[in-house]
Each structure stands twice: as structure tokens, then as C-alpha cells.
Amino acid sequence: MYLTPRQILLAGATDLIGAQLLDRLLSEPTIQRVQAPTHMPLAEHPRLQNPVGEFAALLAELEGPVDVAFCCLASTCGQTDSQKTLIDLDANLVRVFASRARKLGARHLVVISAPGADPHSTDPCHRVKGAMEQALQAQGWPQLTITRPAQLLGPRSELRITERLTAPLLRLLPGKYQGIEASVLARALWRLALEESEGTRIVESEELRKLGK
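The structure assignment produced for this chain is given below.
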């Protein structure tokens, strides 16, 4: 079953995935408004509402109604330098954003996690990601879509030599470990937002690539 969300809330619009998703959302004629709080101004658009400032403080300024919320804040396991950064972002800010979106009326949250997310994992990143997923499920969302993309491929604002060198190999890896283009992921996220169901759905990277074709 499919729906037509018209009021969108997007977190992470300046990041690789969020920027691709924002372009996708603003190209959809059915969408009336996209709220995208950021720390730096975005290009103006008649259907974009872009409060600028410290992200946590901006949450109180957001307005309803909201149909679908996208959270593209979650860090990539390979890019985070410390467990504290992971906890601040994934365990705290993502949860607070989701709670605010729910209060504004959103019934569907689409969030980015990571392959291997498990609250009992011995890997710090996978453990924090798993705890984040558990916290979101405890919020009682009517519809929660957790996506677990593999390593992201695409142009970034900052230079990452390691990612540039490994990108060709990531395209050849099998199944859920194969790298995924940010533009493909953005299309998959939008398609998932159009699907109406109940409860929690976890979508691994291999399925995300198929949905984003």
C-alpha cells in the first residue's frame, strides 16, 4: 500500500545522503514543504523551510504537521574517531530528533543505521547503532523503517583518501557488503517513505540497492 506524504522533516541535509535526498524531495511535485534544520544555510527553494543554527536548539522551532521524518544524521562506522562521538550522535541526537518528529505528528520515521547493528555486539560502533535502533523502537512509532546501507559511495565535501582508494573494491563486494551510491540510497529512502505499513522494517544494503535502481 502506498501513500503520498506532503509534509517532510529531514535531519542531515548537508551530509552526503541528506543532500541527495533533499534534491530528490524538492523535485517531487506532491511535496508541499520540506523542513530541514542545518548548521549552515541551504540554497533557497520555495518549498524548503531551513532554520539555521545549532541543531539541538533548532528542534524546538520546528513546526507541524509532519507526515514523514527522515533522519540522515547517523555517522558511518568507518568515519567516526571516537565512541563518544558515536554516542552523542547516534544514541542521543538521533533519538531526540525522532521524539520531536513524533510530537509534530509524523507517523513514519526513516532512519539510517549500519550493517551489523546489534546492542550486544563487541564492536563499539555496532553496539551503539543497535542501541539507537532499540531506542527508536521504544518510542512507539506506527511505522519505523531502519535502513542499514553499506559503505557510501559518492562525492563528499571533505577529502577522504582512503574512501577514494577503496571505492572500486567496494563496488565489487558481494551482497550487503557492496558499497552503495548515495544517489541510489536517496531514491530507495524516498520509495520506502511511500510505502504504508505497520511496525518496524529493517532494510539491508542489498535490498536498498534494488529499491534505488
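Interim note for the steering committee: Residues 159-172 have pLDDT under 50 and may be disordered. Residues 153 and 165 are 11 Å apart (CA to CA).
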